[in-house]
Amino acid sequence: MLKTIAIGNLGKDCSVNNVNGKKVINFSVAHTEKYKDSQGENVEKTTWVDCSWWTESTKIVEYLKKGSQIYVEGFPSVKTFTRNDGSTGVAFSLRVLNVQLLGGSKSGQQESSGNTEQQPAAANTGVEDDLPF
């Protein structure tokens, strides 16, 4: 089994779709790495992860808004595609198993998830009673 963890900010509000009678929450997580290259220049590299979370409960949707910081873990998938200019691109995606709201947004505003402690609010797949909202 191969499992991947990503921590980052949502690039836009999530969407909920029905596929063959099942609910899927789709969202994209961005992680930006900042470092200096071999010439000493500052470099900023953003990696996007497309996420699909198949779940019966969609209560978390109201909290999955653009800029929200989250932790996700799931099974990874990498696909190649051809861009309009003929070059090859790579898309990295996760079939999500677990999501945790980390309580912050990229703009620095504190998100409220009903949890007054500094602990991340967890949302486990398929277990509605554990949701903090």
Blueprint (SSEs and pairs):
Blueprint: E1 4-10, E2 15-19, E3 22-36, E4 42-54, E5 68-82, E6 88-105, E7 121-124
Parallel strand pairs: 4-6
Antiparallel strand pairs: 1-3, 1-5, 2-3, 3-4, 5-6, 6-7
Question: In words, what does this structure look like?
Answer:
This protein is mainly beta and 133 residues long. It has a single domain (4-130), classed as OB fold (Dihydrolipoamide Acetyltransferase, E2P) (Beta Barrel). Helices cover 0% and strands 58% of the residues. It has a five-stranded mixed β-barrel with strand order 1-3-4-6-5. Strand 2 (15-19) and strand 3 form a beta hairpin. Residues 108-129 have low confidence and may be disordered.
The CATH superfamily name is Nucleic acid-binding proteins
The overall strand count is 7
Backbone structural class: mainly beta
Distance linking N and C termini: 31 Å
Approximate helicity band: under 10%
**Could you name the ranges where pLDDT drops below 50 across 5 or more consecutive residues?**
108-129
Helix and strand run: EEEEEEE
Look at the structure and give the CATH class: Mainly Beta
Radius of gyration: 16 Å
Indicate the mean pLDDT.
82
Give the DSSP E fraction (strand runs of 2 or more residues).
Answer: over 45%
CATH architecture: Beta Barrel
Report the principal-axis shape. globular
The total of helices stands at 0
Biggest sheet, open or closed, and with what strands and sense? 5 strands, mixed, barrel
Largest beta sheet: strand ordering: 1-3-4-6-5
CATH topology: OB fold (Dihydrolipoamide Acetyltransferase, E2P)
Please give the domain count.
1
